[in-house]
Structure formats: C-alpha cells, structure tokens
Amino acid sequence: MGKKRSGGGLSPTQQAAKFLGVSVLAGAVLAGIALPAAGALGLAAKGSVEGFDEIPANLKQPPLSQRTTILDNKGGAIATVYSRDRTVVPLKNISPYMQKALVAIEDSRFYEHGAVDLKGILRAINENAQSGGVAQGASTLTQQYVKNVFMEEAGDDPTKLAQATQQTIGRKIRELKYAIQLEDKLGKKRILANYLNITYFGEQAYGVEAASQRYFSKSAKNLTMEESAMLAGIVQSPSRYDPVNDAEEATKRRNVVLQRMAETHDISQDEADRAKEKPLGLKISRPQNGCITAVKGAGFFCDYVREVFLTDPVFGKTKEARAKLWNRGGLRVQTTLDPQTQESVQASIKDHVYQTDKVATAATFVEPGTGKILGMGQSKPYGFGKNETQINYSVNRQMSGSNFGFPTGSTFKPFLAAAALEQGTPVTKSYPAPYRMPYPKSVQTCSGKPWVNNGGFTVENENESERGPYALKEAMAKSINTYFVQMIGDTGMCPVMDMADKLGVVQGNGDKLPEVPAIVLGSKGISPLTMASAYAAFANRGTYCTPVAIESITAPGDKSLPVPKSSCSRAMTTKTADAINTLLSGVIDSGTGKEAGLTDRDNAGKTGTTDSRKNAWFVGYTPNLSGAVWVGSALQNVEMENITIGGQYQPKVFGGQVPGPIWRDAMVGALSGKPSPDFNLIDIPDPDKDRGPDGDRGQDGDPNQDPGQGDGSPGSNPKSPFPGISLPPGVLGGGNGHGGGHR
Questions:
Q1: Helix, strand, coil content of the chain in percent (nearest 5)
Q2: How far is 310 from 320, CA to CA, in rounded Å?
C-alpha cells in the first residue's frame, strides 16, 4: 500500500489510482455492467453509494429558481423578488460566442464524446499524477450539469448542499449514471442550454441571462466575443474570477478562454489576440431584489403580498412547501394594488407627515364589495436606515405588522351603534349622557357572567360643555363618550362581540376583543387594514368582505395558480347599514370630521383620538372606497400635544385634524375620474329635547340620571392613567398604551 506524504495528502500514485478507479467505474457504466453491492472498491462500505442498479432510474430536475415579478392591477411592475436571480432563456437567445466560449473552456470535446469522456479521464490521470495533486478534472459538461441539478435541489439547505457537493466516489457514480440518461434523453443542445441557465456566475447571478445583465447590462443574446469569454471564465471559480472585485484576475482568465477558443478553432488566433487587448468593458447593474425596491411607496404592500403567500394554505399545505414555491420563483403575481390610489395615498402622506417626524402615519384603502386592497402606505419608508422600518403598521402582527395594532379611540363607536340597531334600538335613541358618569354597575357578557363595575370606574366627555341629553345622531357627530357607555350598558357586550366577529375585527395580535365596556371607546389595538375593511361593510350596505391582495398568479409555462379569494358575508341588515351611513355622514357634515369631508361625492366617516393623544384616527368611506388613517408613535411613547407634524404646529391633535386631511387628500386623488355613487340615506328626525329657559339641555333633576352624574366627584378614579376615562382592570395590554377614546 502506498504511503501518504508528510503533508497528509495522497501520493501521485494514489492520485492516479483514484482517477483510475473512476475510469474503471466509467467504463463499467458505459458497458452496461451492473456494479455489485460490494467489491474491490468497497461500494457498500459505510459512507459509500449503493449498488449502481439501485440508483433511481430518472434524475429529478427541479424547476429552476427564478425572479418573481409583483405587478399592480394594471400590469405595472411594483417590485422584483427572488431567492436566486435568474431568468431562463432558450439557446436561441444566447449569443453563439457565449455557447462556444463555455464549451471551449469547460469541455472542448463536448460534441464528440458521450456522457463520459474516457480520453479526458486518462488525460486528467496523467496530469494529476505528474503534478502530485488534482490539477485537472475530468467531468464533462453533462456531468457538471447533473452536479448543478443536485445543488439546485439542495437550495439553501447547508446539509443537502454539502451532500450534493461531497467529493466521494458515490456522488461521482450518480453523476455518471444520470449523465448517460440525459445525453440520451435531451441531446447536446438541450444540455448546453440547461447548463447555461442553471450555473452560477457570481455576484448573485444564476444563469447566463442574469449574469449578462449583471456585468454588462444587456441581454445574453447580444454578448460579444470578449464578453462571452469573460463570463465563461467565471464559471470555474466565481469568487476568484469576480470581475467586480478583481478585474486583473478576471482579465487573465478571460484571455485564457479566448486562447482556448482559438485552439478549438471557434475563432481565429488574430481575433483572439485583438480581443485580449480590450478592457473588460463592464457596465455593472446592481442587483435589484426585494420589497425595498418597490415603486410608489408600495414596499409594505409588497411585503404583505409575500406574507399572504407564505401563510395561506392555498399555496401549499405546509409552511415549508409554501416557502419552497416562493423561493423557486418565476411567478408573475398580479395584485389588487391600484396605481392611482397608491400614488394618491403616498402623496397625501408625504404632504402631511414627514419621515423625520416624532410620529408616523399609516393608511390603507380597500374596495367595498370585493375586499381588494387598493392602496397601502406609511410615512416611515420600507428599509433599514434611520427613520425607516420593515414593520408594516397597517396590518396585524401575523403579517409582519405591529405587535398589537393601535388603540382606535372613538372609531369603534359605529360598531356598537350597528349592534344596538340590529337589536332593535331605535335610530332616534336618546340618553342623558352627562359630562361625567360612572360606568354601568354591570354589563351582560356572552358568558352570561356580567362584567361588574366594582372599582367605581368613570368616563367623561372631551369638553365640560358636552352635557346631554343627546340622541344618537348628534352623539355620533360629536362623539359623546358618555352616550355610548350608556348604550353598551343597555345593549350588552355579546351583540357587540358578535358584530365585531362579523366585521372581521380582532386585535392586532390576532386575539379576539375582550368583553369589557371600555372597548367601545377604542381601548384595544386594531390595525388600519382591519378598520378599513370593517367600515367597507357599511359602504357595501352591510356585507363584509375579507381583504385580498392577489388577483392572479402565473407560474413558469403560463400555468395559473389558485389564489385566495375574498369571502363576503352579511354582517347586518341593509336597514342598519343605511342608518350607520346616515349617522357617519353627519360626522363629516357637522361633527368632529368636518375637516376630512369631501365636497363632490357622498362620504362618511368617524374620528378617533385616544387618551394622552397617543393615537389619532380617521376611518371613512364613499360607496366605492374605504380607508383608515392612523397617526401616532409606533412605540406609543409620544403624546401629541404641542407637536409639529408635517411642518405644522399642533397644540392638540384630534382625529379630525391630522388623520382627517390625510384621508381627504388621498381620497380626492384616488377617486378622481371615478364614478360617484350615492348612499341610501335615511331620514333621522331630531327627537324633542328638554331644554331649560336659557336654552341649555336639562341636566339637573333628570329622572334618568344616576346620582352624582354631572359633578364628577362620586366614583371618580384619580389613579386612572388616562385623563377622561377610568378603565376597568385588565383593559391595559402589554405596554401598548391602550387608552380609551375621545374624538
């Protein structure tokens, strides 16, 4: 037995024996001899391959991973994403120079030998024996292609990748068998095309088309002789011959390829010599990958589309299956995003809230009746830098959104009103609604065990002048807190929970809303997408549709994939929806949302401001577009008083002030040139109001008024962290700043 050299490597004799063993195996394969399970080469020994005949008959050729293009609903590109930057092209779209250069340097006898080049093996044995190492390989282009297939199948899995590239006789045998099959099945031209499309050219470029675009900013069919030679030279060692990082080494390698092309008579020696004198002529195009490249501020929508794909079972039963399909790519994803709406949303955000402001805004717009997301944006751009973020403030945590959503303030009140009307409460319902009052002594819940106000918790209105009695229309327009707390006392929690379920309203972390009366004042965090979709049900006369972001997906080969569909269901009667639309039209006409109102079409909405002014909302809609706008600090640590937002000083921020105009301007641009349908409004008469001789509403002596209402002293809770609202235990959540709502 030969001895190892002191350096630990194989001696020249052992190197020759190793290659001789491979050649013997190759000869056996070519002769069609089935190798035994055990023999002189020890194929059945631990860590080696099974018998040759036991290798699966056909090589699995996975579809090559490619770029995925995400499009808006008009077919315009939003972003390109990929696991591997590759564009598969047929051989006719690859320069003949490129084809010749690759064959010349990698396997010059490609068209002469079969799957295995015995002459090449013997040459390699001789060269390696003389050099004392492995100076020359013997794999044919077909064998290299098979190896690349193994690597493509392994993907980014380090264990599988190591198995695909391990230097063992077992792997070599597999390559040999599959190479023979492919030569017979595909032929030389197909193998060459497949190789050029699968192999790695460095700098994140897989396949010759991506490489041509990366290094020369042109299509592979237009590559010149010297450009082709450079790319062909990279294949052997993409890091060593990287022209971006080592132009000198890449030039030397290119010239080796040019000389080899002359030796194989693909070009003349004179052509090769002239080409060697030319510079590399690089025209670098930087890789453009991921949602960070999205146009029109659609990075967060792009990210939402990706999350939908990775989480929806329609794209695969398991998380792993969906991720594999997404990473394989090659998809054309047509989305619901409307470029007109998206541009308008981003322009309005940019006008009203600056990227550098202490607070941020997020806005989402959906189409009533379809659930299609037409626009989604925020003031902190998608990215990794200062005043940038990858957290999508518009969506729930499951979809890469904020952990809890954001407290919605009084924008929750319409859900209670809808639940009450569904229970038979008249639309003219009046309550005493004093300035300050205790929460009801008890409120019924779905469990049958009532919530009890054991802590003497109280609630008050924004201004001391806001004293009832109020009817529903005026209470909604002025966002009277005490009115709606009295209403939930009569209605109970269960109808409100049922209405929230029908409207798809959950907390930002995905949990159901808690059964506590403070939710009517917006104490819990909800995402803008959830709010916009829920309000769209009012616009759609009571039918709620789940939000959708994807219209269609086309896979390679023009194969259509199934996509998630919006599910629409009735949440309330048309009568109730029409009443809510009438009530919320009053909010814009004469209530807290006057600054948000549109002048050229029917519109409705609701303001919301939480305690300490940490959050401000406006959620509004027309019959054909619904949108939610949130303004605040993502960390819930900024009180929006005496603050400058978008270059405008704000002594106190209300929902109708900052979010309202953002919504208004976004809607104006989004709906420009679009139809202007009408609501089915109802007539809501003003009930008789008891008034004193000075014209003020009666307060003292009201028989419906609880003792102590109006002066604020009995039952007040000075320990409440939120001025204006005393919350029951358990309402605050996880440091999320969940306060009650004002406007």
A1: 40, 15, 45
A2: 9
